[in-house]
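Hello K.,

You asked for the raw outputs rather than the summary table, so here they are, unedited. I folded two proteins back to back in the same session to keep the settings identical. This is the first:
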Amino acid sequence: MKNIVFSLIAISFALTGAVAVAQESGDTNKPAVNRHARMVQLTNANAYEIEDAVRKLGFQVNLAATTENTLVLRGTKESLAEVEFLIHEFDIPKTPAQPQRATEYIKLSFDHNVGNLEGALLTAIRSRNSRFAIDGHNGVLILHATPSEIVEAKELVGMMNRQEKPLTLEFSFIRASISSAPGKNTLQGALGKQVTSVLNEAGFGSLELLAPITVTVSNGGDFESQSEFSKTIPDGIEDLAFGVEGAARVMPDTNTVQLEVRANVHGEFTSVANTGQTSFEINTNVSTRLGDYVILTAAPSSTSSGDAIALVLKAVQQNSH
């Protein structure tokens, strides 16, 4: 209310002059003053506030506010013109207050795809005067925006930080004997501790790691890798080729990864006495927890020696960097 009164005073004195107040005198022959009536319907301002402000300014008009947000005015033509001018100056749409903006630096903890991040931020940062920039060299999002936009951007980056961490897939091709004798197991480390007993219980013995294949894949991306194995044995030479391909995706807000895996082993055993072929293929979909070993398959290969091939996988999501 004080602001309205002060503003009205300022506008009032900016006019050609204040309304002269007729001085009372004893002159009984003073000519009659013509008075007129007006009704002003307000659209944006409050009629009662305007009425109070005009009264305080001392204009020589009679006025009253109604419940229909209307001002009823009565006075001279000149005084009505000045009061109506002031009223219309304030009966304008209110400009919404502009939210305060702040500058925020948000660390990006993933090998981000700048295009994907920019596209997502353009949806979140909609205010006319808000801005953002991506410092790819230092992995920082520089944001000048409203508090609500900053919160939304942080949530968006946090989600992408989780989703964009690369996955490391550790494939282990293991040869096993399916004879009745368990034989000697040569698997080492965590792989040996967690996989050997399971395969032994399933009837696979003499476990030998032929080819470890490690691939790094972006979350939701495709992967492909090959490896070779060559070994000289007393009876001849064995050459094997291994291949893995597929896709991997970590489910949002879980510790679970979904994988499509296609793998194969092809090779040849050559000796003085004979030549043998090895062939093994797998095509499967699997869901597993990050960090766990999972046996994708354990089955006889096409060799006639009684050998089998087991394929073991562990998926690990890399730490932020």
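The second followed immediately with the same parameters:
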Amino acid sequence: MEIAPTKAYAIYDAARVTMPALREPDLGERAAVELIEEPDRLQRVERGVLLCEESAVLRRVVVRDRERVVELSTLDFLRILELEHRIQLADQVFALADGRTIPVARGEDG
């Protein structure tokens, strides 16, 4: 994990001067990809991991070298934890985090 200045954020920050209520979808993902694609950031065989809220984000963010980026959504990550038996049900954890209600599984008599 690293905090680094990016052009994506600088442009957004400058635009907020004239548009204080500006919201920029996918800004974090664009900034992360910008860093991953810096020429000296990764060695030749290394790849950057992009953690994002949902798996469709790379369809909206320009990535010049997709082979260098591993996209991992929140739900993907939860499913990995489920497979490793670190959590019980990925979908249940995701729904709880998303604020949705979960039907409680009941036995046949109840």
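Confidence is low (pLDDT under 50) at residues 106-110.

Happy to rerun anything if the numbers look odd on your end.

Regards,
P.
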